[in-house]
Structures
1.
Amino acid sequence: MKEVKICVGSSCHLKGSYRIIELAKDYIANNNIGDKVNLGAAFCLGHCTDGVTIKIDDEVICGVSPENFKEIFDEKLLKDLD
Ligand code: FES
């Protein structure tokens, strides 16, 4: 089981973390990995200036945007589930 947390602290919220949550939900559904991934929200992960910040298991990843989201999830999530 992979834990994916998306920061919804105020700074990341302003940078569009809710959009990332939507994308993550779609991504999980489209790849059929709903039973292997636990998606949730997190409060400030301490990298506000580099948001949107997410955490996949113990790894904190900053600067997540709709543009680079897929690349990050392919690399950090999907690859490890194969
Ligand atoms: S608000 Fe997201 S890291 Fe601080």
2.
Amino acid sequence: MNTYHTPVMLQTCIEHLNLRPGGVYVDATLGAGGHTLAMVQACPEIKVYAFDRDADAIAEAGKNLKDYPQVQLIQAPFSKMRTQLALRKVPSVDGVLFDLGVSSHQLDKAERGFSFDKDASLDMRMDGGQSLTAAEIVNDYSEQDLAHIFKAYGEEKQAKRMAKAILKARSKAPIGSTLELAKVVESVAGVGSRDSLKAKMRVFQALRIAVNEELAEFEAALPDAVNLLKPAGRVLVLSYHSLEDRITKNIFRTLAKGCICPVEQIICTCGLKPVLKVITARPLCASEEEQNQNTRSRSAKLRIAEKLMGDTK
Ligand SMILES: C[S@@+](CC[C@H](N)C(=O)[O-])C[C@H]1O[C@@H](n2cnc3c(N)ncnc32)[C@H](O)[C@@H]1O
């Protein structure tokens, strides 16, 4: 399984999920199934509903988890978690794990088009059934929209210049491949420099997030996951860039605070009560040893929150 994707912060996640016999858990981002496998091995008397929108991941995890009938694989975006669980008559769960972003396999498989150093058509879809591809964004979106994507999802300082360079390149011929796009980025950031490598990373990350609507998906799914939790149930989020980590921090903070009335207002009129306790004031990171063994774990940040007892699910 390790060649497909090495699970990040595996033991830490298992410890903090507080698995208990009879419990029901959700792996929102199955991938190759590394975290799910460790969950059922640590506590076989649980039920796991595991989501991925990538058919390839579902097939790979199906092989890795074939001996575990307590795991149900669901090919769907995690924003549909609530309805998918309702269809299966699951009203509440004891824990949810999000391990966000793409798997190593998705990045490494050239034809998926996620990687700027592997020649492929500009695809970047996690769900091959979806119609929007990165090629469509690069070749059809306006200069303004492209600049917005690079700035908002890649935090790219030269977003406007990148968008302008794309418009210029595509006026001659459509930009069809990853390497063609990488060349356009280099035309702005310089060839072969460290800055250029980082710029390619930021532009490709931004496009990937836009193609898969990653932030909107997660912003919709995290409050749903919290709603599904039973009292003392936990939600764990492993993120790999500041945009996702910020969303997690803000949603946790809002749900832990409850009342949203202005500070100067003495009597609460919103009626909102805290529903979460934040377990990690600061995100947890992978150990130095893991970071040396698995480069992907270097950017990982794990945030954990626990449902308060007030909820009667
Ligand atoms: C980092 S990998 C998970 C790896 C997994 N924890 C393991 O150990 O093998 C993230 C996975 O989540 C999936 N994914 C990302 N966004 C998703 C979404 N909105 N809905 C469902 N799956 C998603 C990707 O297709 C990918 O397979």
